[in-house]
């Protein structure tokens, strides 16, 4: 396992559990205790965790991992979800993509669709996520529109009134939301209120809204609400989702696609 992959795994375990012992982490990742101690020390220098005697605890401000440190947990599910979402987009449409690991996979799935290999444009992509814009900018058949705003380091998303100015002037066919939590009662949500506000505006400018969320996100709540569940047309998730939860979404009027 590379150092980068090891660090990502350590940080996700730490966020999940709140505290990790050196020996526990070494057993989980199948490396030596000395390697874990060195990793903990280097991550502490970056203020990604707080070093303790014999281990580490979550840093006071790291409840949300920066995108670059998120591992490919539920990777196969996210890739299946991404392909299913990409299949909902028709050639020539304007699609809005928020930031996040699942929406990044959606962008990649769109990029490899053979029927989107040419056109003028084959697709218009509106995004406030710098990493998504960077990946798709090399596709000359795609028209890429990036909102203005201030970059949020955790998610690479642009937020603030500059982004509002662009989104208020456009209309899109479909908005694809990456979420931290999606619940029938509380709706779609993100960690950050400014990020949620941009995502909400993207939804308001769209003819239809798709939430792309693996089953671990369903039934969860988060701090900042993006939109109500009934503002979403389609939920695309994986087959590990609780059937009762999916039934409740369907009763709320959503089309549910489980892949």
Which tags fit this structure?
alpha/beta, 259 residues, seven-stranded parallel sheet, three-stranded antiparallel sheet, 25% strand
Total helical segments? 9
Question: What characteristic shape results from the CA principal axes?
Answer: globular
Largest sheet: number of strands, sense, barrel closure: 7 strands, parallel
The counted number of beta strands is 15
> What structural category do the secondary elements indicate?
alpha/beta
Q: Strand-residue fraction? A: 15-25%
Poorly predicted tracts of residues: none
Would you tell me the overall average pLDDT? 91
- How much helical structure, as a percent, in the residues? 25-40%
Radius of gyration: 19 Å
The strands making up the biggest β-sheet line up spatially as 6-5-4-9-12-14-15
End-to-end span in angstroms? 29 Å
Description:
This protein is α/β, with parallel strands linked by helices and 259 residues long. It is 36% helix and 25% strand. It contains nine helices and 15 strands. Strands 6-5-4-9-12-14-15 form a seven-stranded parallel sheet, sandwiched between helices. It has a three-stranded antiparallel sheet with strand order 1-3-2. A three-stranded antiparallel sheet has the order 10-11-13. The two termini are 29 Å apart.
What's this entry about, in short?
36% of the residues lie in helices and 25% in strands.
